[in-house]
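User: Predict the complex.
Assistant: Input components as received:
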Amino acid sequence: MLGIIASLIDGVLVGLVYGLAAMGLTLIWGVMDVINLTHGTMIVAGMFALYLLTTALGVPPYLALPPALVGGFLVGVLLYWVAVHRMIGRPPLMSLLSTFAVNLVLIGIGTGVWGTALFNVAVSLPGVSIGRYTFPGAHILAAALAAVIAALLYLFLHKTRLGKALRAVANNREAAELVGIPTTRLLAIAVGCGVALAGVSGMLIGTLFPFTVLSGDGYQLKGFIVTVLGGFGNPIGALMGGIALGLLEGAVTPFVPVSWTLVIEFALFVLVLIAFPGGIFASRRGAL
Amino acid sequence: MKRACLKRFCLLAAAATLFAAPAFAQDNTITIGMTNSQTGPLNVDSLGQQRGEEMWRDEVNAAGGIKVGGKSYQVKFVSYDDQSVGGRVQQLYTRLVNQDKAQFLFSPYSSGLVAAAAVISEQYGKIMLDGGGAEKKPFMLGNKDLFMVITQADYYLSGAVQALTQKNPHAKIAMVYSDDPFSKTVLAAAKEQAQKAGLEVVMDESYAPSTTDFGPIVNKIISSNADAFMGGGHYSDGATLARQMYEQKANMKWVSILVAPGDDKFGELGAPALGVTVPSQWEAQVSYKPDFGPTTSEFAKAFEDKYHARADYHAASGYTAGAILQHAIEHAQSIDPEKVATALNATDVTTFFGHVKFSTDPGSHGLQVAHQMVLAQWQKVNGKPGRQVVWPTAAQSAALIYPISASQ
């Protein structure tokens, strides 16, 4: 019984991080209907930024988060102008292909520079034990930081002028333009924010697990499931979706062979798509 | 406009012809074809194998080439990036045979890719030396031109089972491994060997290769009351398992993980790496007296001088694939494929990599029957994590540490 409870707690902890990782993906989708296929690679970029900052410059792991946010934002704005801007208003397949192409280039560069060798950032924090089961301190802190970042994103979107403008663009771009909102600039900011979130989640994941240049694929895949669970274009829903996915993994693992976990996850993905085409936590008032 | 289009088409066609131009074998050259995983998830291990092969080629050419009947053949490689994808492997090996006119082939890295490449090498009757795939299945299909220089997957964890049995005959083992052909074959054989030795296997499960978080799986291992762990798969999964078992205090007295701990980067894990054992095809601490080719220390030094990195077992197996082909050609005194195949069938030689001999049984032709693996353990060497050979005892460079908490 204790083992099951431990797995559920573990599921919530890692689910919060999954949620944060998916938030950037769903934010960009919500604002401009673009599926950013560089998302997994941006998560990996966060991991490598953490590695370089901690090993080369000696920055403590959690102090690397603010530069990651700023760096991720700038990279995101650049990504918007390179791969997304000309695709706005075109069929979704165009932006899918353009971000896919950029992703291949980035992975090619990453593999050329680092290979697919393993990198590890050692983080030692005291954990919490319940009986024989231990929850590592780094997992608890990463989950707490993911929740804080999600709350800050909520406040940004709902309480600031810029956040409200972003939501206006997400809900009706033409109307937003009519009232004088510079939509192009805001679209670039949205991609910047989405990539910054991917980078920060990558940093947090980098404190938990070893990683390679190709680690992003798994998180991007989970990001899609979380996005569907949480509702397309709903960043806070993504956090809920992440927790739901983590809980599911935690609840299923003690009872079925672990090789079935992925099968069950994707079966749920299909079921949710059928029953709730907009996602379980889809906003009734539209995107964001 | 039409003329411009025609011009572009002609330019493209000319460029394509240049790239597609077949490489005709020259009189004094032996062309060997292969693919390497320069990109994709197999990149690290494949790079080691590729470097080993290239080092053999460069050494042979620098020494004047392969000597056959008073004539010397320079070795030429034609290689492509298979992107770690089986489908690419089949396209590229077909190209290597038909367009590049490769006379002999080296295998790609990993069991899955070797199985894909073997279909092509057999179809065209080309000898292929396998230095990167340990699964025996392709060798049970009646293939005649495929030769494995490494120990097959069934014996990967034999040393670990023997050593664990000696230390704790009542050990309870959790076997958790990647859901891929290589890992499944290794663990199925290990389970049988463990049960025969009287050990109890309390958990036997595979996980999807894309698994990123092993937290719930580690909890399940703890719940199984296991005190020994065997499993893993390839790279990041093995390292993540080692780290999470340590951080979640799974308190395993024994941990054997496939492949990942065989790479020096595994030491970056720090304390979670200590005590972890890894089956290895070759370690620099083990010295065999070679009948042919360089000694262990000569190979290790030359590799480090050339690549400024320590040679791992993938590099050693890559070099050995070349050396064994050279040995067979020189014994056959011919580059005729049939004569070389006959010489390979008769091969019974010790190199720095160990003893190499191929099965000539039609039901398992080409399978390696002489080479033996060692078991290495991560221990503190001069205060830092380093690999030591701990099994078999005759080859030990350090005593086996059990339980592993004693090494941390």
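Residues 9-151+287-357 of chain B form a domain with the Rossmann fold fold (CATH 3.40.50.2300).
Let me know if you want any component modeled separately.
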